[in-house]
Amino acid sequence: MKKKYTPTDKLITKITGWVSGLVVAALAIWGIFTLLNFYKYEQTNDAQVQEYVNPVISRAGGFIVDVKFEENQEVKKGDTLLIIDNREYVLQQEQTQAALQRARAQIKVLESTTGTMEKEAASAQAKVEANKAKVWKQELDYKRYQSLYNEESATKQRLEDVKAGLDVNNSEYQASQNTYAAFKSKINDIQAEKTVVHAEITKLEALLNRHKLDVSYTVIVSPYDGRMGRRTVEVGQMIDAGETLAFIVNNETDKWVVANYKETQIKDMRIGDHVKIVADSYPDREFRGTIISLSPATGSSFSLLPPDNSTGNYVKIVQRIPVRIKIDGKRKDINVLKVGMNVNVYAGKKRSNG
């Protein structure tokens, strides 16, 4: 008995045929575009967006008294992020400042003492000159009386008196010279002491500047315009110098993509080539980029334990070469791309004319 098809069956068959045809056509178009892309581009999905993400590190230890940022907050250069209790650092600064004032006062005392000693030394020098004149005069008298005594015109007693006066004057002259030398020696000692105090002042000034730096380190500010990362600190927390307190993404530098291309794909890539970037988060939006560098070695060569192919168990694996690509465009247009996002990179293939 011959099977009869109802009008409904014919309609279903017709619709099914059209749907199948459309699916095949769509697959064919997709396949053609895919083949064209493979023909035109060297592409990879092993690529991520990168920016400079720097740690916010404390240069002073102490208790946190205020936290002035929240997670993901936009900050400007110089904005205060954290404040650390600075009382201990201020006390150290004041102690050093007091020691510095004392040393400077000591210099003034030594300078005053030096002035007094110089006046006394000048007086002693004048006395030396006076005694020298007396000795000269007494020597002339002694020579004159010596001649008179030899001619028997003067008595021996008178000659002895003149000789005694000459000896006294010589003693006074020598004493005044010693006094003058003592004053000069004291002046030299004071000058040496001033040198020591000046060295102490230089040391205290350096120490004071260091304490001022320590006080300034208790206020942690943003080093540039950026965006704060995850917040892990709170008021009352004790921190140490050198401790990482947060992370900040630098808004003042370019964004770039690190695309890990297979070693078989980079033959025609050159610095300055333009590429197409499509983010997984924004599949309908294209970004443009420029190749700015190719890694001098494969990614595995920079690993903690690079492979040693001389061990005898060598298995050939296609290696990846990191390619750094600057994302072109205005900052506000590319800010939608965040650090660590996965992207697909399409680099145009160069074709020879022959």
Poorly predicted segments: none
CATH architecture of the domain at 87-217: Orthogonal Bundle
CATH fold title of the domain at 87-217: Helix Hairpins
Total strand segments: 15
Number of helices: 4
Q: Which quaternary structure do these chains form?
A: single chain
Query: Which class of secondary structure composition applies to the elements?
Result: alpha+beta
Query: What strand order characterises the main sheet?
Result: 1-15-12-13-14-11-2
The share of residues in extended strands comes to 15-25%
Tell me the major beta sheet: 7 strands, antiparallel
- CATH-defined superfamily of the domain at 87-217: Helix Hairpins
Question: What would your notes on this structure say?
Answer:
The protein is α+β, with helices and mostly antiparallel strands and 354 residues long. Among the domains are: 53-84 and 219-249, Beta Barrel (OB fold (Dihydrolipoamide Acetyltransferase, E2P)); 87-217, Orthogonal Bundle (Helix Hairpins), CATH 1.10.287.620. Helix content is 46%, strand content 23%. It has 4 helices and 15 strands. It has a 7-stranded antiparallel beta sheet. Strands 3-10-8-5 form a 4-stranded antiparallel beta sheet, with no helix packed on it. Strands 7-6-4-9 form a 4-stranded antiparallel beta sheet. Helix 2 (87-150) runs antiparallel to helix 3 (156-217). The model has no long low-confidence stretch (mean pLDDT 85).
Summarize this entry quickly.
Helices cover 46% and strands 23% of the residues.
Question: What attributes characterize this protein structure?
Answer:
354 residues, alpha+beta, OB fold (Dihydrolipoamide Acetyltransferase, E2P), seven-stranded antiparallel sheet, 4 helices, 15 strands, rod-shaped
